[in-house]
Structures are given as C-alpha cells and as structure tokens.
C-alpha cells in the first residue's frame, strides 16, 4: 500500500513539475534575453524568475506530500507535516519527527522523489543559464 500511495503522489508531483517547467521555459523564451542591456539586469531578472518558478514548484510538491501525510493521519498539524515533508524531500533526514511503522516507507519514497525533482529543476535552470550566456555572448560580439 505504501508503494502505491508513494507512486501516485510521485506521479502528481511529476505532473506539477512538468507543467511548471513548461511555464518557466515559456516565460524565458518570451523574454528578450539577448544581452541588449550591458549591465545584464534584464537577464538576471528573467533567470531569477525562472528559478523562483522552479523552487516554488518544489515547495508545492513537498506540500502535496504533507497533505498526503495529513490525510493518512500521520500528523495532527499541517505545519508539522510540511516540516517533516521538507526534511524528507530535501533528503536531510533529521529524524526528529518519525512516521508510524505503517507509513514509514513513504519517507524514503518522498526523498527519492525530492532528489529527482530537485535534479530536474537544477537541469532546467542550468540549461536556461547556458542559453542566456550564449545569447549574451553572441549579442556582445563574443565578449561577456
């Protein structure tokens, strides 16, 4: 049952992450990040917006996990569930709050989900950074 709950939750997180990646990339593509501004502030703002969308997506995903934990009756307060979920999602593993034996396998499943989704966010952000760098370099005649 833990694996089924975990896989369904992971699928929901993947769907959200995929949608937010599309949103972030569309935002990036629609902005003129060509190095027209010698100070680079336009590029900086656009890159920060992309990063913010991706980070908020990861926060939303750990909140999804926290809601699942609350539905399962693991935690009385959403705040505690979110904290525990954040520790799992980020793979910190403090261990100061432990789930019941019945659902404890969900913690490692969330950690796997977090590692994957944070990795996806990192890959997207690096792709955008590399693209912005290349566009800036080309717009400045090979000089950055």
Précis, in short:
The protein is mainly alpha-helical and 144 residues long. Helices cover 74% and strands 0% of the residues.
Q: What is the C-alpha radius of gyration, as a whole number of Å?
A: 19 Å
Number of helices in the DSSP assignment: 4
Q: Give the strand content.
A: under 5%
| Mean pLDDT across residues | 91
CATH architecture: Orthogonal Bundle
CATH fold name: Helix Hairpins
What is the level 1 CATH name? Mainly Alpha
Query: Main sheet?
Result: none
Strand elements, count: 0
Supply the number of structural domains.
Answer: 1
- As a percent range, the share of helical residues equals over 70%
Give the CA-CA distance, first to last residue: 54 Å
Helix-strand topology string: HHHH
Q: State the shape.
A: elongated
pLDDT < 50 runs, ≥5 residues: none
Class inferred from helices and paired strands:
mainly alpha
Transmembrane segments: 7-29, 49-68, 111-129
Pfam families: Ion_trans_2
Keywords: Membrane, Transmembrane, Transmembrane helix
Domain Potassium channel: 64-130
